[in-house]
Amino acid sequence: MMPFGSAHFSRAESRLTLYVKAEIPGDSHIDVTIPSSMGIQIPAIGVVQKKIRLMATAEAGNMEAPGLLVDDVPYIGSFMSSTALSYSPQIAVLLSTITFKFVPQMTISGGEQVVLHLQDFNRDDSPNDLGNFSISSAPACFQEASWSADSDKLVLTAHPVLCNTSLTRCATCSAFSVTVTIGQNSGLKLPLLGHPRNDASLIINSNAAAGPVLPVPIVASPAIPAVIETEVQYGDAVAALRQTSITIFLPPYTWISAKRRCRGSFERVPCRLRGLV
Predict the structure, then answer these.
(1) On the chain, which terminus has fewer CB atoms closer than 10 Å, C or N?
(2) Predicted TM-score (pTM) of this structure
(3) How many beta carbons lie within 10 A of that of residue 244, not counting itself?
(4) How far apart are CA 57 and CA 63, in angstroms?
(5) Which part of the chain is CATH 2.60.40?
């Protein structure tokens, strides 16, 4: 940190103070690296506007200059905790209408992308057009998407005209809430083995120039139950009309929350199983 001896960060004031330990000549070129060990965190809303001021404190009189805006600020986008997926129907393996909601803190312009990594989702081979397909959104920023089977990525591309007006941020306006609907015409199917609630393997990122977002987990998603390759075993001395114990084996990728019932029925047997016997 030469020629600075130490640094202090005030969370209450969001102010980083560097203490000079040696005289700094005028017109000096100074590079300062603040280690991550200081615990400074990027704001939850990202860095989407030039609002970082550099303040200089003169020794004589201990007076502060008005402060200058930092010229070059790398923008960082954010969706905060707004990202949420929902499915209809919410059944493994079936075609489903997928609804995705998010609130971008940065401007998204035409041609830029929001990418969802939907691990183990599949696309039906039945649609005639296996390239881009139509979707809808409110505001009407996203009209088209594509699916990469190799990477399980759903790419939402901002409309070149509509998105230049509908998702533009300003210094005083609030962020826009966006709802994207991917209909069953997309051919997308939910994972064969389902996934747990709020699955951290579901990822979002964006290449928005006004604030790119590196891959981060989608915050909210419902559980998709999946029961396949199950097995039933009977107890001792099995015979017709004789009471017997029944053991049901479920695979480990089945999510059953507390106080839920797991029901099974047997053809031509007048009984219903509740829970695991």
Answers:
(1) C
(2) 0.74
(3) 12
(4) 6
(5) 84-217
